[in-house]
């Protein structure tokens, strides 16, 4: 693991899915800085995506902010240099806005990144007269949110875009969604919707908007409805041949089977866990089944268990991904009685 600092620029170690970030001096340029909360990951197409925020420490707005990202290998050799800008065109005095820059190359040797501010210009103020009201955010394999944006300004709000920003527990940006551009007449409102990729790291969400002449403030999404992509149902306890038990003999082979329905149209590796507990709460057994969902559909998943003592037990079932992130909601426990 390697962390370097070059010319007051931020360099962070990139793993295959995300970077390890550290408390390093920020990348600055005359009062405009790239904050330390940089996050990066490998996209599905193999490119490296870098998320971050730029802070304007000046007493006046700036625009045309240019951010330079150097993509490097383990030995700090440059593989690609790419520039980009912030999501919002204008950063208010004392404000901060996100950026998102992807490598052009899908190069697995990219393991480090360097982020620096390459330039900016002074800007007229952009009034924050756009108000956003959102419906509950729907979280599943994708993020989906809709709502209303109101133009309280005197001019038509043209080319208005709303951004959905996902943050992890460390307040790093881990995903960004963008609405289609819309126009909103003065004193009127318009409906919007955003669908974007979902990150299992996301813990909170914010919305912000900007048009050719106006902006909104950054507002939190306070209502979140999580729809996990796996539904576990019809758990049964049988012998190895599929015959249901009324009572289970000690040392008999038990097959615990559930139906796992995947409602997302994607490939998803998963682990089906079965946990058997005594009524006192003591864990008697944990078993697992590993599989892969290849798009929407049902799978029958099973775990074998052999009880070695009589008593009363209950069973809990879970479906997680390989990072121990839940893919299914909690399933009600199933009671069973063991008799010699």
Which key phrases capture this entry?
single chain, 340 residues, mainly beta, Immunoglobulin-like, 3 domains, seven-stranded antiparallel β-sheet, five-stranded antiparallel β-sheet, 29 strands, 0% helix, disordered N terminus
Estimated helix fraction: under 10%
Shape: elongated
CATH C-level name of the largest domain: Mainly Beta
**Distance between the terminal alpha carbons, to the nearest Å?**
56 Å
User: How does the helix and strand content classify structurally?
Assistant: mainly beta
By CATH, the architecture of the largest domain is named Sandwich
Succession of helices and strands? EEEEEEEEEEEEEEEEEEEEEEEEEEEEE
What's the total helix number? 0
Q: Rg to the nearest angstrom?
A: 26 Å
Query: Which stretches are low in confidence, meaning pLDDT under 50 for 5 or more residues running?
Result: 1-26
Describe this entry's structure for a reader.
The chain is mainly beta and 340 residues long. Strand 14 and strand 15 (142-151) form a beta hairpin. The chain folds into three domains: 5-122, Immunoglobulin-like (Sandwich); 130-226, Sandwich (Immunoglobulin-like), CATH 2.60.40.10; 230-338, Immunoglobulin-like (Sandwich), CATH 2.60.40. The strands form six sheets. Strands 1, 2, 3, 8, 9, 10 and 12 form a seven-stranded antiparallel sheet that branches. Strands 4, 5, 6, 7 and 11 form a five-stranded antiparallel sheet that branches. Strands 13, 14, 15, 19 and 22 form a five-stranded mixed sheet that branches. It contains no helices and 29 strands. The protein starts with a strand and ends with a strand.
